[in-house]
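Hi,

I'm pasting everything inline rather than attaching a file, because the server keeps stripping attachments. The sequence lines come first, and each chain or strand is labelled.
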Amino acid sequence: MNYFTRNVTRTAWIAAAAMGCTSAANAVEIEYWQYIYDSRVQAVDQLIEKFEAENPDITVKHVTFPYADYQTRVVAANMAGKGPDVLQMFYGWTDSFVNGKVLQPLPADMFPTDKIEAEFFPIVTAMRRGDDYYGLPTAVRSLALFYNKTLFAEAGIDSPPKTLDELVETAKALTKKDGGGNYTTVGMTLDMAGQDHQWWREVLVRQFGGTPYSEDASTVTYDDAAGVAATQWYTDLATKHQVGQPGFMDEGQAAFRAGRAAMTIDGTFRLGSFREIDGFEWGVAELPANAEGLRSNYASYFANGIGAGAEGEELQAAAKFLAYLSSPEAMQLWLEVVGELPARPEVAMTEANLADPVYGPFLKALEYAHTTTFVDEQAQRQVTMDMANRVFLQGQAVEASVAEAAAAEQAIIDRAR
Amino acid sequence: MAMTQPSPQSGPRLSMRTRRAIWVWAFLALPVLFYSVIRFYPTIDAFRLSFTNWNLLSPPEYVGVQNYRDMFASAEFWQVFRNTFAYLIIGTPISLLLSFTVAYFLDRIRFGHGFLRALYFLPYITTASAMGWVWRWFYQPAPTGVINSVLGSLGMGQLDFLRSTTWALPSIMVTAIWAGLGFQIIILMAGLRSIPQTYYEAARIDGVGEFAILRKITLPLLKPTTVFLVVFSSIGFLRIFDQVYNMTTNDPGGPLGSTKPLVLMIYQTAFNSYQMGAAAAQTVVLFTILLAISLLQLWILRTR
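And the predicted assembly:
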């Protein structure tokens, strides 16, 4: 082939490619699934727009479902072979999604394990099975103590409690009752169905010297002196110190919003709802440490994973999109639109963020936070709720209640394995 | 006859009766097909699934009667079983007694009759979840809950309602009875109206007392209506879900499982824990109970 013919052939190829381009530009379409939550949907729409601008050959179709049937939809679609290419999922679903072949491992060439572990907060390891990673988060959540600044000022208290003992004292000073002995304002909300079960499991149990589970998460280990002490301390808030009442105003967050609770423990996801409060000023503080200064926190996240059905071009496009979703740029946008914390320390731990009175306490927690490996989050939450209720409502001894809870939770874990 | 005189039409000649049957079945085919696919097939399949271990993700695996064995061995199941029957055994008679009393007297008044009837019927057409939430707030401790606030202002103690393992179930049952009352009243009134006035006139001429009229004429002649309502309301209480779920969303069926009915347990087993086999086994139990109770009631209240 001489130079001329080679050139002609090449031109012909380019022309053919260019002609094909009108349709080839949209050749790869991938589906992204997440549940409906207004700000999350907006954030993903914005991210898709930017991603498509950078990758004109890929179109991302954004599909959403109500949270209540999100998991069922994913599983059903997967069975029918019509699952998403990239999907958002709670880290706690990883085991069932990996075992059920909903997910495939992230391609190791694009997402090397050592690089992930160097660049993300340590809690990302909850997405690792063996040597493979099955997903990466855009944003993470942690817990903090919300306090009602107006009530604090009225009582002449100028700073939120830093230790558990201070928490009790502060709560006592802020609790108000009417003539009939009914609470009108609680010092501290008690709501196991809210975030208290996470606080108890990953924070209080550790602060009283125990661990909630064994290293490999296969055994419940809180049925010991530490677990009992943590539960005793928690239930004492209502029974001994009388700074709160389980079920007061139905939910802890409702009581806080209504200005009838001086303190409550909740997560980053509550910021949006609390920002609508205009009756009083509120602040955020790190969860109180124990007397020795030990702090802990519970962090969780939704990760993005690649569906088992994606292959070839779609797999490549999916991997590209997932890389973009977990890029520093996407994390910054997520923080601004959704208000959740970036999953990379380099984006999260900036001076501006750490100095932020709202984000600061949540961010500091990420360095010492734990994630629970749930096998059935709702059932496990129920166990903790029942444990507290047996003490509150039936007057069961704390030791017996903790032992019963440990046995029940162990049965749930055993069943899932 | 058709052989000797061929019909001018093509095709075999069918008798009027057969043709009508074909038409009827042609029209019935669609609903029958629809019901077979979306109702009967899943029902029958539930029996098969109840012998498997299936989490939706991996294919069902046959485990024999393991699901049933686990279920009958679990304390939670028996508590739920007791709760379900508490809703049925307390709820059905009380709701029937109340609705009969209201219907009986409402039938006798003329002034404000339509208005009162509408008031009684209103809860029935209200969304169960909305009602559940309203009642949930009624039952809150002071200062939120209306009932406790009133009690508090009268200097009385607080009632725990939904926060008590003893009172949570009756508290929820009250709302369920209230919600179903309107429907039962309407049906009972229709039943009362259908009793011929001549019986009453004859009895009054003979000087029979009001109570005897009620016992000897009204109640026996109302029996078909009563049978229908007993069966209908029993099935309703056995399937109770909306009120319980909406009034206890933070701790579904709580506190400590004291309000959890079978349907809520099935829902949680299937769609929170994804144990489809175990949930199917629970469904089979519910199906059997519903069938047995309905047949029993039809037999007890049968017309002799």
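Chain A touches chain B through 38 residues (CB under 8 Å).

If the labels don't parse on your end, tell me and I'll reformat.
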